[in-house]
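Task 17 of the worksheet. Students: predict the tertiary structure of the chain below and write it out as structure tokens. Keep your answer in the requested format; marks are given for formatting as well as content.
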Amino acid sequence: MSLYPPPNYSKMARRFPLQDVREPKLFPEVFPPHEIPRVLYGNQTLVPQYPDHISITDTTFRDGQQSLPPFSVDHIVHLFQLLHKLDGHNGLIRQTEFFLYSSRDREAVEKCQELGYEYPQITGWIRAVESDFRLVTSMGLKETGILTSMSDYHVFLKLGLTRRQAMEKYLRVIMAALENNVIPRCHFEDITRADIHGFVVPFAIELMRLSQESGIPIKIRMCDTLGLGIDSPDVLLPRGVPGIVKALHDDAGVPSEQLEYHGHNDFHRSLANAAIAWKYGCASANGTCLGIGERTGNTPVEALVIEALGLRGSQAYPGLDTQVITEIAHFMSHEMGIVTGPKQPYVGADFNVTQAGIHADGLNKDPEIYNPFDIERILRTSPKVRVSDKSGAAGIAFWINSSISPSTNVTKEDEGVQAIRSAIDDMYAQGRTVCVSDQEMYQLVELYMPQVLSLATVTT
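Model answer:
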């Protein structure tokens, strides 16, 4: 929903003029050079403002790919198909962006274009270099990301420019996009170390003025490049994510649907920051499959999907197929060699594995006791037990029922289960320090409960 009446960007520009400082503003009180970055609080009041529609944009083939060896064309196309399948024609996963520099990248874009999907829409990514823009037009793309660094760390120390020189450099490429009817998506790099009202807001006001004049919705992606954002409305700029969103929305007049948040996980905050960006008026959150990306990675797309369902409910996204999350994880692991941390939520090998006997006992009685949601229906996977000295008879019984066959229906009181428990206790009493493997468990069941194997169909 667009703002009404139309914003007066000339008036906004007078209120927030570009502060073309001579020396870089590096916020030493927030980012002391040899210490952990500080979190400074204020007494500001920010009002939440959920957009009418929230969406997810994907950067698996750009930020995700740049952190790993190059993806093959076939891998890119198949992952793109899985994202489309996950979305289920909802537009929740609205877009994905691609590199355009290598022949492999361009071939992947062409093959994905041939599929003719409405979602996710295919967009590009380029530097703020006019020669790069020719790649966008040659691929027939309707939208492209453009790198527009915001912090003085980047403007002064990396680019060797002043703020005004940087702004003019960026605007040349943005104008080229507008002249070719291509939507520019300006990536405000390192925004959580930038002078928000001295450079970010004045530049955004100029972009919105151009957007109003051209009729082309210029987008702004708030890039928390180092994961420094904080998900609290009380945290002062430049680290407070709600404050950044509100500054762009309220002070620069950027409509919610033209705002995106892109976070990194350096401080374990990427998902929380994306969710709080939605809450305060940013329509889109950007991420990657499995959270791959530079350094600690990006916000996981699968986590954003689950977060959106928690906020809006499954009825808001009919046809969304969350079971594809598991399919994506298996494909990236087995076919692409991209292995996540074993305990990573939703996709890690041990995400739903317990060793604790008390948890296994609860699972035996009712899966809802120790499941955060219906894992089998939503992710097409099931809770598991890895047997150790802490699993007890309940863990052994759960392993037998889940690994051999549910029809066995053994309980922790069964004599055979107790015998297996005693054998395992002896192993650890003799100095064992690792979990009991599945193969060892099969052998123990064969030794102490042969009737279970003879009556049940063994499943793997």
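Marker's comment: The mean pLDDT is 93. The chain has two domains: 9-334, 353-455.
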